[in-house]
Amino acid sequence: MKYAIILLLLLLFASFGCIDSSPYKETDIPELLETPADYRGKQVLVNGVLENGMIQGIRILKSENFTGEYRHDGVLASVYGMFENGTIVADSIEPVLVISTERYVYYSNDTLEVWVEFVSTKDGKGRVEVAGINNLFGRPLVTETRDMIVSKGSNYFDFVFKTPSCEECSALEPGEYTLNATVTMDGREFSTYKKLSLERSGTNVTEEHTEKIESTEAGETQPEPEALKTGINESAVIVEYFYDPACQKCAKALPVIDNVVNSYGGGASFSQHNVLTDEGLGLARKYKLPGVPSVVINGKQLIAYVDYGGDTGKLEELLRKAIDEASTPETSATVAGRDMILSVPSVFVVGFLAGFNPCLLAILAFIASVTLATTGKRRNVLLIVAMFSLGIFVTYLIVGIGLLGIIQHSAALQGTITNIIVAVVGLLGIWHVYDAYHLTKNRDSSFYTPKAFVRLTEKVTGKVSLPAAFFIGALFSLIKAPCVGAVYFVILDMVRNGDGQGMMYLAAYNLGVVLPVLIIGGGIAFGLNPDKVESFRKEKRAVMRLVTGITLIVIAGLMYAGVI
After folding, report:
1. Domains in the chain: ranges and CATH
2. Whose CB among 330, 362, 378, 429 lies 3.0–4.6 Å from 552's, allowing a Cys bridge?
3. 292-311, pLDDT tens digit by residue?
4. d(CA 97, CA 83)
5. Structure confidence by residue, pLDDT tens digits, 414-464
6. Is the pTM of this model over 0.90?
7. Residue 232 dihedral angles phi and psi, to the nearest 5°
8. Alpha-carbon gap, residue 40 to 42, rounded angstroms
9. Residue 34's beta-bridge partner residues?
């Protein structure tokens, strides 16, 4: 078992080494633009959406030996080639995601057929989404999401939509719009787009003109937002109504909404928002309304025209149901999920618990005993323990930041990193369980500590050298990584998509790991007998190994199942 750590590290580094097997270095576009001199004349691989023969400002040309398919617009592709003076001379362009339509110009209520092609490097499961034609409020009026089975190679998906109408009620003007295609698979997201033009049909123009005239002649203008506000108490359900003064559908909906809200007395607060005003438009964009008329209850539940289709009786039914449900206190305070698991306090607690393990307690008791025997000064124990802990903290932080950087900037790893971590955590969990059994039959742990390291620690501790104590802490964190750092792999997986907060989480975990060492070291410095610490460690180490092992195996299972 003492060679298991070497085998694990070799396997881990071998998996990372596979990244650079290609002569093309995978590079981010911003990095190319910021430091072009570093990549001049080098073979690079970039991923991006081709538009007018460019990807994010970098021109793409074909080399003499070009292979593949060269498409200009709206194709997410991998481009392999030589970088020179802001240009990539491509040897190959491999499409990854393509979205296409039958034509460029469409009319209101037209049939819109959309085709999505996704080229996958492996078999698996994922999700494909088509969304676009955003209205004035930022809401996509065309959207559909599907779960999918993906095969290695090209995969094709067909979608059929009805284009929205260009009228005030949908907050949609004629013009050019974007359709987006997004494929999510193994934690990676691929996105591209397609431009199209939406125009009014002759029928829609006439209907819209008639609606405007009739509305104006009949004097059916909506009251100002401040005209109807009946907020009476703080616990009242907030009902917000959004309208366009020229919209007949809005004029028909208002009396129904007004009557329903008034029937609740002080139990409901009613406000109106004209979407042609800055205030109304801002709120409509905040809620991403599909159009007008729309009703928002407590800032959460939406009732749009499409929900009742002009049936005012159904509108009343939907509104009463929404207000009644909003009046009932919620029983759940938060939504369970990854955000609930990942927080600075929770990561700190995980690190704190990981700090209480036989390996750390053993080396701590050894350091304290040697220091006391050599100098007889308990103050020296505190100094040595503090520098030892700092060595562990800094080493794990640097290694963690390095691994996190590799994970986040290597797209090739994103699909397999979780499987690697699950395997490592699972193996370490099994090793911990085995060691618990091993300790019931043997005196020494299977987590072997080299005798050279023990002799070095004794020598450094006896001299009370603070820099050397820091070095011993750093060396210990690497030699005993399977013992102390098993949960570290889980934390790395949790923070790899942490939107820039990864370093903070790593620091919190590392601080949690060294805190028990500092606490016990401080206790020894102020009178605690190191022999008692060592006695406790020997008595409880099998139990600690077993609990840690079972926990790691459970965590590996939950990670494999996608729960964490």
Report:
1. 15-97 (2.40.50.140), 102-204 (2.60.40.10), 221-326 (3.40.30.10), 342-561 (no CATH)
2. 429
3. 899 999 888 899 888 888 89
4. 23
5. 456 567 767 776 787 788 788 778 878 777 776 655 566 556 665 655 555
6. no
7. -120, -40
8. 6
9. none
